[in-house]
Design goal:
Length: 45
């Protein structure tokens, strides 16, 4: 029983970490796009 609980907890932790990585990567892309827009506006494009 303890092994099953440990396996479930490890699985949940792993899924949380993987989804967090995707979220952070997506946020980074959004920030990069916003920075590019500001840069283009500053250059007058």
């Amino acid at each position: 029983m303890k092994r099953l609980v440990a396996l479930v907890l490890v699985s949940m932790f792993s899924m949380a970490m993987l989804s967090a990585c995707n979220t952070v990567a997506g946020a980074g892309k959004d920030v990069q796009k916003a920075g590019e827009k500001v840069e283009d506006a500053a250059k007058g494009h």
